[in-house]
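Budget justification note: compute hours in this period were largely spent on complex prediction jobs such as the one shown. Inputs:
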Amino acid sequence: MSSVGVKPAPAIPTVHLHPSHGWTSLRLKEVWEYRELLYFLTWRDVKVRYKQTFFGVAWAVLQPVLTMLVFTIFFGGLARVGSDGLPYPLFSYAGLLPWTFFAQGLSQSSNSLVGSANLIKKVFFPRLVVPLSSVLGGLVDFLVAFIVLIGLMAYYGIWPSFEVVSLPFFLLLATAAGLGVGLWLSALNVEYRDFRYVVPFLIQIWLFATPVIYPASRVHEKLRSMGLPVWLYGLNPMVGVVQGFRWALFGRASFLSGADLAASAGASVLLLISGAFFFRRMERTFADIV
Amino acid sequence: MESLGKRFRIGAQRKTYKTLRESLVGAAGVPWRFARRLGSRASDQTEDYFWALKDVCFEVRTGEVVGMIGRNGAGKSTLLKILSRITEPTEGSGEMHGRVGSLLEVGTGFHGELTGRENVYLNGAILGMKRVDIARKFDAIVAFSEVEKFIDTPVKHYSSGMYLRLAFAVAAHLDPEILIVDEVLAVGDASFQKKCLNKMQEVGQEGRTVLFVSHNMAAITRLCERAILLDGGRVLNDGSATDVVSGYLKAGLGTTAAREWPEGKRPHKDIVALCAVRVRNDQGAIAESIDIRRPVLLEMEYETWIPDYVLMPYFALSVDEGVVAFTSNDVDPEWRGRPRPVGRYVSTVRIPGNYLAEGTMFVTAGLTTMNPDQKQFLQRDVVAFQVVDSLDGNSARGDFAKQMPGVVRPLLTWTTEFDDS
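Corresponding output:
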């Protein structure tokens, strides 16, 4: 039975089933093959979130705006934490924007696997898609809130210069950080449901560790006065993101520490890669214990 | 020169499942267990584990339609999950050649807030279809489901029938090389079940490989050439569907007409446990074969340990085509609506002679507590018996000797008027 002159049949995939142990490969190619599912899950999350609400997507704006107002009154006005020479509302809002994206990504992704338990128990697809879609869903909210930022900048008459092209990079960094932590949390939450209660608390504390309310320059002063290396602060990946965000928007007017940025980028990448491998390692147990 | 096979071979394949105690104690006990492991042999650790499947080996060729049967807890769903790559085997290996489409549940991922149209795309994507495929088949899917008028309303407004039809319609258009179906026929009304069966038959005839898990013995014998019997996680039997099914039915007591459960293994929920189901002829003996003209008695023996519940036992009889002929609830005035004391009961229903159709009758036994209605047990096709017509003239067939269709065959009164003007 010669195969000369016969057109080869379309490739039939072969699947091998076997137990896996320890650390396994990320199989990112498979995630790419399921990109349509990723799109649909993200789209579903966003659509469902706002479907029966009255304000709809406006909630994506109301949250950072209201928070900014509260911060302005208490931290900008009463406590006078300072704002690098920028008007405080603009200063805090510019920080709140990437922060809200990160925080929302965290809280959504940490419970994403448990929330999609029925899918995970009945259908095969690379599970990485689930927390990934949670984090990406926040992008829609981010873009809507960004429009308000443009409005604010117009109001104060402050316009960005060429640094603004780096904005997507900082957004990417925020995504990486959010996804990295999200992968760790979502995987851990499947086995230890405690994490569901840890996350809101974690986000609150994390907010204070990030220069959203106050400028990073003050932290640096303090660190230097204590004789500690400045990049310690940058180990919090959101430190680099928020600083970078403000720098991209407001240029020289905003403080940006190279050490912080390097530390943040390094921490983000580390979190992402370790999170992905940890997730893949735990993945084989998800369908059984979720 | 590998033949294009949908070959599937698993070596020793198992799945372990930790007990809750192990999980809870695990984290705290790590140093202790480590010390214990240093001292003792590893063998005493197996008592904490439960093997859902063990040493399962089989091979399925392209185009075969294989049924998988077994009692509840035999490991069928676990095996399907491994084949669908939802969970991993703990040991062993397998190979599958071809894309796999799994139908373990109908309507997975359906979200009430989204419209029917949106759910079709979502569900299709979840099942692994590409968006272009879904778009191409969209009209066919909607036509199959018969919900055209409502395709743009949110699914939460659908009736359960519409919901099921739409969900199954998406899954029915999957087109994988290997189709795995898990008891999806257990839900839905008779016409829906018929549609599912027909579609699966179509798929099998198209030359695809189908693996079908069900408790519906009649459907298995109708659709599948081959069947695999799983019990306690192991393969007990593998061969022609009719052989394996009758072997399974006989496995209870060497007879298909009676089934008993020993203490500790009785099907139950909170209030009632089923002890035995038996088929008796009108002499009172357990009978596998019943004369069509004579009554047959179906007996259910059960016990309750919590007093003051109203219980309602019922039987359902199914015929070869996978159709339920009828269901009968216990309406005996003695116990109807009356709370029952603790104890063991035997409820018997008497089916009159010249009522049932010829052929194999599969008996399903169930019981609910009333107000609130809670199912205590439901054993499908738990016993079976043959209804035989001796053709000597006084059954409902009269003098007609050929095939008579029908799920019942009552002997009814006929009158004729004759006008010879």
